[in-house]
Design goal:
It is built from eleven helices and 13 strands. By secondary structure, the protein is of the alpha/beta class. The longest helix has 27 residues. The N terminus is likely disordered.
Length: 344
Amino acid sequence: MYSRVLARSFSSSRASLAKVAVLGAAGGIGQPLSLLLKDVKGITALSLVDRAPDVIGVAADMSHVNTSAKVAGYTSDKIGEALAGAAVVVIPAGVPRKPGMDRDALFNTNASIVADLVTACAKHCPKAMILIISNPVNSTVPIAAGILKKAGVYDPKRLFGVTTLDVVRASTFLSEAQPSLPPSIRVTVVGGHAGITILPLWSQVKGVSLPADTLEKLTKRVQFGGDEVVAAKAVKAMVDGVEVAARGGSATLSMAYAGARFVDSVLRGLAGEKGVSECAFVESSANPGLPFFATRVELGKDGAEKVHPIGEVSASEKVWLEKMQKELGDQIKKGTEFADKYGK
């Protein structure tokens, strides 16, 4: 029941029908994401893929949910069957961030995982919308672009880095700081998807009346919101006189919600609905000198139909934009160089 309630905060109607594949569906993000997608209208088939055999049980469990999407589970050796005919592929696969680990530390493992999965997409569903959740997104999206280019099937309109969690956090934190604004308020978040490369544009939100120092604190909280979750999931407690550590991990539930929202928006665009937009990390000229950049994107039948410019920003936001340039550029370059060497 709770998945239906959450899904209703997404769209309420859709004309077109689609198959969606989730790669990494047995993981901490993959399971709640898949559950939410099971209740998104317009999804007729949900292919759950993971290298862990648990995915078969996850799919069987989820198939009992009484919504129209048909669910099937596939281990990695059957990924071709899972991807065939997919209109949208979501990739949350990879290792999660742990206490003391920054997103760059994830690179060596997750880079290869993303490259392998995108190679499969290029072969089995070259026209699909590919949505990258696997961190570090600032590098994994350029990796995916490079792999698709090598395969001769790259379309920049169909490749997205999912940065929706930054938008969700910005909306939540802003409405908490200024209760007159609803949690549903949309905040444009530009840049990338790690630390100081994340920039919420408070100056573009109507009705904001918070002092500058409060907005600066909110900016930093959005930028490092993932650290809050990692720290909270690493707490220890006394159980029967014995100190027990929590299982640990990174943001999974909030990321699953954000990912499901982005998938829903992509499907609404594919169905021909007008005015559908989300922030996403895409190939863009929005910030000269950086080949990929997150900004607001209008979604349509061909994917990213329009990438909006950054627009007017405040003096403090301009400073943040300047701060992020080198770091984001280096992370993009790291991904591009990995893709160039991949398979050689």
